[in-house]
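In response to reviewer comment 3 from the previous cycle, which asked for concrete evidence that the modeling workflow produces usable outputs, we include below a single protein chain processed end to end. The sequence was submitted unchanged, and the resulting C-alpha cells are shown without manual editing.
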Amino acid sequence: MSNPMPGWYPDPEAPERQRFWDGNKWTEARAYPVAGGDPNMPGAQHSTAVPDEKRKSNPWVVIALVAILAALLFFFAWFFLLRDSGTTTEPITPPTAPVPTPPQPTAPAPVPTTPTPPVPPTPTPTSTPDVS
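The workflow returned the following C-alpha cells.
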C-alpha cells in the first residue's frame, strides 16, 4: 500500500481542523479551513488552509491598537465635551471701579504733655554800691 500524497487533510483528532501529512507521518502543523474550501478533498487544500501560527495575534499589536483607540476616544471627548466647559451663555459684565468710601471722622490723637519743672526765681539785680 502506498502512502497518500503530502498535503492538508482532515485532522484525525479534530475534524473541524486540517493537519498536514508529509507523505510518511502527520506533522504538528494544523490549520482551520478557509470559507469556501472543501475540507473533505484530500491534498488539494494547500491554498484553502490558514495555519494556526498565522491565526495567533501578536499581543503588542493588540496593545498598540487598544492604546490608539483610547487616545482617539480621549481626544474626541475633550474636543467635543470638555473644550467649551469654561464658557457660559450669560453675558459677562465688565468690572466696575471701586466706590471710594468716605473717611470716618476720628478724634485727634492725644498729645502727651510732660509737666515742666518749676523755674526758680532769678534774683533781680539791685543797684550795686559804688566803691570808690
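The two ends are 185 Å apart (CA to CA). We consider this sufficient to address the reviewer's concern, and the full set will be provided in the supplementary archive.
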